[in-house]
Amino acid sequence: MTAKAERRTATRTNKESRHRAREAAVQMLYQWEVGRSTMPEVLETFWTHDPASTPPLSDELRVFAVELANGVVATVAELDLVISEAADNWRLERMNVMDRLILRMAVHEFLHQRETPGRVIINEALELARTFSNDDSVRFINGILDAIRRRLERE
User: 66, 93, 108, 122: most buried by Cβ count inside 10 Å?
Assistant: First the structure.
């Protein structure tokens, strides 16, 4: 394998792993919101349910997932305000719960993970919507996040 191919494989593996960490974060947020659990309660039980069919996340990726979930919970009022301003004719409580959680997580990354390019954040959110929601949600999330990205002037 050439050095260039090895770098591509390593980059792809890292992206896929970060994607898996984002999946874990959105699942934690779902347990927090729907299960009405506190984040300490969620974190106490979440990692005990790793499916045997997928390799476990590394400690570094678990930290990333927990930081995302905790960051969303800590700034939910700020995130909801940003989303509400961009979601014409949509109240947050009327949104599909997974769409709302994906939007919150993406907006949190826009605001607090400045090193992650805006297009990557949107792409990841759309992949999460494809996994946890439906095609209408993908279009809905894309429209709202693109409006937020333009307003925040993120590339």
Answer: 108
